[in-house]
Amino acid sequence: MKAMVIAGAGIDKLEIQEREPEPLGPFDLRIRMRASSLNFRDLSMVKSGGGRPGLVPNSCGTGEVIETGAEVQRFNVGDRVTPTFFKNWIAGPPTVEGLSSALGAGRHDGCLRAEMVLNQESVVATPGYLSDKEAATLPCAALTAWRGIVEEGNLRAGQTVLVQGTGGVSIFALQFAKLFGAEVIATSSSDEKLERAVALGADHTINYRTTPEWAKRAREITDGRGIDHIVEVGGADTLQQSIEAVSLGGNIHIIGVLTGRVNDVAVSSIFRQNAKLHGITVGSRVMFENMIRAMTLHQTRPVIDQEFDFDDSRSAFELMERGGHFGKIVINLPR
Ligand SMILES: NC(=O)c1ccc[n+]([C@@H]2O[C@H](COP(=O)([O-])OP(=O)(O)OC[C@H]3O[C@@H](n4cnc5c(N)ncnc54)[C@H](OP(=O)(O)O)[C@@H]3O)[C@@H](O)[C@H]2O)c1
Predict the structure, then answer these.
(1) Which residue CA neighbors atom 23 of ligand 1 most closely?
(2) How far is the C-alpha of 72 from the C-alpha of 152, rounded, in Å?
(3) Rounded to an integer, what distance in angstroms lies between the CA atom of residue 166 and that of residue 148?
(4) Which of 52, 173, 176, 304 is exposed most, by the fewest CB atoms within 10 A?
């Protein structure tokens, strides 16, 4: 069974290895993986060496059940399934055990391999209208955006949502915000990417390179009210702007630190604005299933920028490192 492994720190240390198939427990599924998608976190793992030699990267993928354990009842051979980001967070609030079960980190190998063995509870049924490569984009980026603005933020029609940049999480947040009848402001370093965001439904755009003080512009767009939901993926370069842009009682969904960690936070501005800061770590299987129902009803299609062959996985990580993408990057897995 072919697996892409992290053999050291750096994209050039990714290498293909041949591995023995894993044993199948009574409640397990053997899954022939079809596609995997990249997240910024996977790139960080690859660049840092992954914490342990031999880790298979990538939290996200999708495949087909090829064998079931004796006690399996949820799925049959031939079913298309998509692993959840956390193997052990099924429902309810986050737990220490659940949050330490992420795929593609620690002792849990990820999805960049030909075959996986997972407990039947650690996957969802893949929506029939999505291709394998589309479904492979959902477990981390889509669910993170969904949990922030929908599950924690209770997004309502008529509210405003600001998405930072045009990476995986932000493009899903844009799509979900439009699903809920919200007004969307998209930011990007690229006018060409902003045009693509408008084609996806963004109502307003701000180029954060030419308008680094974008909070002021966001308040102008909303007639001074400020933004109800900010998808905060930037960290050091964006959090202060987010605090200045948020509406009274509005939500900042704290998701990423693309531009580095934040050392100084304007606490007084946060309480003056009565802002709610939601720390987000992806979501549970139940949240994933909620999201899939909404996507299926509206036939929401993930935005894929480029796809790569398994043998060319390094090029996929290099594209993400350059930030050249819009939406998601996918790797097709060996047949
Ligand atoms: N907490 C969680 O559960 C969770 C889950 C998923 C992701 N994350 C985190 O969320 C962040 C985004 O992840 P991702 O997978 O969506 O990454 P990604 O696809 O690599 O997104 C990269 C994009 O971010 C934008 N960006 C970079 N600097 C920016 C800035 N100063 N202001 C606004 N946008 C900026 C750029 O967009 P333009 O090219 O358009 O400028 C860039 O293309 C990462 O830090 C990731 O680790 C966290």
Answers:
(1) 167
(2) 33
(3) 17
(4) 52
